[in-house]
Write a structure and sequence with these properties.
flat; mainly alpha; 214 residues; 74% helix; 7 helices
């Protein structure tokens, strides 16, 4: 007769739900890896292009840097949800393994070791996105020189003030979004109310008509 653990392992590995969880995990990890490489590389290429076209502080340069920083922050907010989805799928796969093999089973997901110093995928992505946002926000400062301040104009001061205010706002927003805890607490189930019976529904209609006619 086949061994019980072997048959349970075969059942788990061929279970459609378990295989679907593995497929979704591979998909989310692949998207995260592509974004993690695309965002900093695109930022480096864009900043290099701006250096060749805009050598001094200007409105188009500031707008481009603000757009780059906000877009990067938007990528992070989307990726944060992706990380949460990935962790949720891992937890459900681990639950499925524990149900199949028992609570002490060490599997692909069950009892998976924690990240060294508790710094894992989420922490690494926070570093990459934080550095990228900072690069976009601080890049206009690299275009300033002593000649800019030797011939100060009112429009230049106004532009610099607008840049400073918006930069602080985006930086605070980024700090808030990057420090949000990614939780795996399930949502509360929706409150289900049974639909009213036909008699109750007709009675309410008749009472409403009676009130309106009276």
């Amino acid at each position: 007769m086949p061994d019980t653990a072997t048959s349970a392992a075969t059942k788990s590995l061929t279970d459609p739900q378990w295989r679907e969880l593995c497929t979704q995990l591979r998909t989310t990890d692949d998207i995260s890896l592509k974004l993690l490489g695309f965002v900093p590389l695109f930022t480096a290429a864009a900043i290099t292009g701006l250096l060749k076209t805009e050598s001094s502080l200007s409105l188009p340069l500031i707008i481009a840097c603000f757009a780059g920083s906000v877009s990067t922050l938007g990528f992070w907010i989307w990726e944060r949800r992706n990380i949460q989805t990935c962790e949720w799928l891992r937890a459900r796969a681990a639950d499925l393994e524990r149900v199949t093999f028992g609570p002490t089973y060490i599997g692909q997901f069950a009892r998976f070791p924690g990240a060294p110093r508790h710094f894992g995928k989420a922490a690494a992505e926070k570093i990459v996105y934080a550095v990228t946002v900072a690069a976009w926000l601080l890049f206009p400062l690299s275009t300033l020189s002593t000649s800019c301040f030797s011939n100060v104009r009112a429009i230049f001061i106004l532009l610099l003030l607008v840049y400073a205010v918006v930069t602080i706002m985006i930086a605070l927003w980024a700090l808030r979004e990057l420090t949000v805890e990614i939780t795996l607490s399930p949502c509360e189930p929706p409150i289900w109310l049974p639909p009213p019976s036909i008699e109750v529904w007709l009675t309410s209609i008749f009472e409403d008509v009676r009130r309106r006619s009276g």
